[in-house]
Structure formats: C-alpha cells, structure tokens
Amino acid sequence: MTQRWDPDAYAAHARFVSELGEPVADLLAPRPGDRILDIGCGDGALTERLRTAGAVVVAIDSSPEQVWAALERGLDARITDARELEFQTEFDAVFSNAVLHWIGDAERVIAGVWRALKPGGRFVGELGGSGSVASIREAFCDALGARDIDVATVDPWYFPTAAQYRNQLEAGGFLVDSIQLFPRPTPLPGDVTHWLRLFAQPFLAAVPDDERGSLLEEVRATLEPRIRNADGVWIVDYVRLRFAATRPG
Ligand code: BEZ
C-alpha cells in the first residue's frame, strides 16, 4: 500500500484523531500496573494517556516515522505489522484507535490479539465503520473512474458493519461486551486538501506524479458542495465502530 505517515503533517492536520480517541481510552479504563499493547500508536499521543494512568504500555506501529515520534515521547514503541504479532499471553489489555480500518486482514489481527492477551484480558478499540468517509470514497471513485481506473484496486480501507466485526471477533474466540456503529461528523482544522494528502495517498498514487495536483483539485471540487458548510468549515463524514471484547478466562 502506498501510504506513508509524516509526524509533522499529522500533528498539524490530524491531531483530532488522538483527541477524539479519548472516549476509547475511557472505555478501556486502564489501571495502574496493567500491561497494555497499543496497536497503531501513531505518534503516541493517546498512548501517553494510557501511560499517565499508570499502565505499562508497549506501542506498535508499522510506520518507522511514527514510531520514531513515539520514541521521542519516551514510549516503548516498536515497528511491528499488526498482522505479525508474536506476543504470547502477556497483556492485560490490547488497545487500538483509528488504525484497524487500514488492515484488510482482520482475522489475522484478531488472532494475534487473542494470543497476545492473558485469559480474561480485554480488547478495546475503535476503527472506521461501514459508510465512513463515503463522500470521499465516492469522489475518488468518480475521478478515477473517469481515468479508467477501478477505485477498488487502490482503496485501502476496510470499514465493517457492527455485525461483521462482531462475527469476526467471536470467530476469533472473543466474547463481545459491546459494539456500536455511530456517525461522527468531524470538522477539519483546515482545508480538506491536507486531509487528502495525509490519508488518501493510495488513491492519489493511482495516477502519475504530474497528474496528482489535478486529481486533488477535482476531488476537492466534487467534495466542496457536499462536506463544506456555509462557514467554510470542512466536515468529514466519519462513521466509527467502537467495541470492547474479552478473551475468556
Ligand atoms: C477513519 O478513521 O474512519 C478514517 C481515517 C482515515 C481515512 C479514512 C477513514
């Protein structure tokens, strides 16, 4: 997948991702001494919150740049692909915010999380759910379709329904304590172009370098009447899927 993370751009244009992840950390309710694995820690902003609660956190991310940013916060951060977890029965909880929709192979991730947890351990997380960023997906579908590119060949996102993800968790041996899908329209701190450059790289990479600027402008123009309000604020149609599950004891 053609997606790279730039910690400075992320901090400037996507700080809302960790800030809006606070309720997921609340749902986890970390306790002093808990050993917690944070999958997809990014620059570690939310991981720090778990550590502040007294938990001992191992933070992983597949992006070397983000892991470096997390290390600079003094976190135990490691470059690891969430599909390749090798931890065995060592965590009281596994946490993940706004990452699992980047990984199509949910069964493999869930199996690794189950192995990583102690019996009775909890898996608490949030990912994009069915219908998330539909306006943006559709705009790329039209713009790439007009260039004879099938958007499905580049679309990296996996946005399950609550029923789909519940089934996957249960098939992986988890008891699902709660799972809910809900819309979360999200105002952006600036122009949608920053969001697209940060989060939609696989779509932009579908065209040659010298066509990316015009693709970006076209997608922005399609989106403007749909997701920009009268005050000029861009509001992205995020949908969240939040869950808590337990590895039976
Ligand atoms: C989400 O959190 O739903 C999301 C994040 C980045 C791109 C698409 C969706």
Alpha carbon gap, first and last residue: 37 Å
Chemical compounds bound to the protein: benzoic acid
Sheet with the most strands, sense and barrel status: 7 strands, mixed
Average of pLDDT: 97
State the low-pLDDT regions, or none: none
CATH H level, superfamily name of the domain at 7-133 and 157-187 and 237-246: Vaccinia Virus protein VP39
Strand content: 15-25%
Rg computed from alpha carbons, rounded to a whole number of angstroms: 18 Å
Helix proportion:
25-40%
Second CATH tier, the architecture of the domain at 7-133 and 157-187 and 237-246: 3-Layer(aba) Sandwich
Structural class: alpha/beta
- What's the count of strands? 7
Structure description:
There is one protein chain. This protein has 249 residues and is an alpha/beta fold. It has a domain at 7-133 and 157-187 and 237-246: Vaccinia Virus protein VP39 (Rossmann fold), CATH 3.40.50. Helix content is 39%, strand content 24%. The protein is built from eleven helices and seven strands. It has helices at residues 7-13, 15-19, 22-28, 45-52, 64-72, 106-116, 134-145, 162-171, 192-199, 201-204, 212-227; strands at residues 35-39, 56-61, 76-79, 91-97, 117-128, 175-187, 235-246. Strands 3-2-1-4-5-7-6 form a seven-stranded mixed sheet, sandwiched between helices. The longest helix is centred in the last third of the chain and has 16 residues, at 212-227. The chain binds benzoic acid.
